[in-house]
Every structure is written in C-alpha cells, then in structure tokens.
C-alpha cells in the first residue's frame, strides 16, 4: 500500500477538520470550511502570469497552493480552488471528477456511495456551502443574504443543466450550461480552457478580485478593484469606494484579515498592464 502524501494532512489542518468517512455530511463540512479559509481571488493568477510560471504548469501544485495560503492568504480562481479540492476529495475517499460548465468554469461532480451525484463548487464566489443534490432536489436553491444559486435541468434527453445566479431576486451573472458527462479526472483535459484564461482579455487578467465568507460575522466580503462590499446574512449590503492603494490594502488587512496579502505587488502588475483600479472614485 502506497503511503498517503503529507499534503493531505496539511490540507485538512488548514481547514481545521479531522479525517472522517466520505459521507454527504463530511462533504458539506469540507465545502463550508473551504469557502471560509481559501478566498476566491485572481492575485495568484496575475503573479503566475507576471513570473511566467503559467507556461510550465497549468496550476500550482497542491503543496504550492497550501503554502500560498499559509504565507500570503491566497486561494485562487475556479481552476485552482476546485482542482485542489478535487484532489483532496479523492485522497479522503470520495468518487469524483472535474466538470466543465459553459466554456470556462471548472467545478466538481461527486458520486456518493449510494450512487447519487452531487454538485460541488468552491470556485465561483457563490454561497454553495453544501453539495447541491440536484438529482433528488430538482427545485434546489442555495443562498445567502439575497445571493442565490440554482441548478435546473434544461434538457432531460441531453442530460443538460443550467447554473443560474440571482441577486436580491434579479437574475445575474454567471449563467452556465453544462452536460453531466462533460467530465474528466485530469486537469490536463482542460489545458486549452486554462491557457485561454491567460489571454490579454481574460476575465481575471485586468482587475483585482478577492471574495471570502466569514461565518462568525455572518457576512460575505467582496473586493473588485476599488469597490468593497459587505453582504450580511440578513440581506443588508454595505458598499465603499476606496480612494487609493493604501485603503485597498487596509481593507484586506482589517476586514479580510490578510496581513501578508501581496497587494502592492499585484497593483504594480495591473498598472503595468494599463489597468486603472480607481476609475470609479465617487460613492458606490
């Protein structure tokens, strides 16, 4: 029997979770902790691009991923977050594959011991705190403070589904359509998709983005360039427009709790790319 890699214990330690049997309940615990510990952010992606490391590997290794969180409070976008969670789930006994939604979003399809398939996604900055039991709960809805996600079948014969987001009752982005058989067990199967994400006009190549869930304060934090937003569980939303780089870093330190976040470095990368983080200087 081969020895389990040390990163598995390190991963669970970061999540502050013990090892348990691969049940639906345990999967829910993992999802919830992952969303609180690993932020959805594009800073690591910009650093990889700036350093050129994206040319030699599709995503950081799981060891690099965990070390980045410990040292710099980084997480990733969907390719990094969901791929490494996929590796952890397999390591602790879950039967799962990577699932492509639309043309560019990566999630996870988990098969439970009794055969039911559930949707797992910690890489969409969405309130998916539990596995979505879309096969048994066809009218499923997962939400937090007015932000809601639904998975609906849109073609029984084609096994086609749709992921939709709602904000305060209004349909918003993203909307993804996907096939349940559009899965793979290797990140290399999505090499073209990941490579495209580094193109000049890639969705996360021309902005600063960071989002995380803070359960103790019953709130979600979101930073997009100089726009900071707090969404509370009761639906209340606070908005701030930050006026300079120091204000952005102060929010990341004081509100997110990320004292070592590489704010100055990534702002320099974006400035060199011609991105103005302060186009919106007035009140939000």
From TrEMBL:
The keyword Transferase applies. It comes from Desmospora activa DSM 45169. Pfam families: Acetyltransf_2. InterPro entries: Arylamine_N-AcTrfase (IPR001447), Arylamine_NAT_domain_sf (IPR053710), Papain-like_cys_pep_sf (IPR038765). Keywords: Transferase. One of its GO terms (molecular function) is acetyltransferase activity. This is Arylamine N-acetyltransferase. Belongs to the arylamine N-acetyltransferase family.
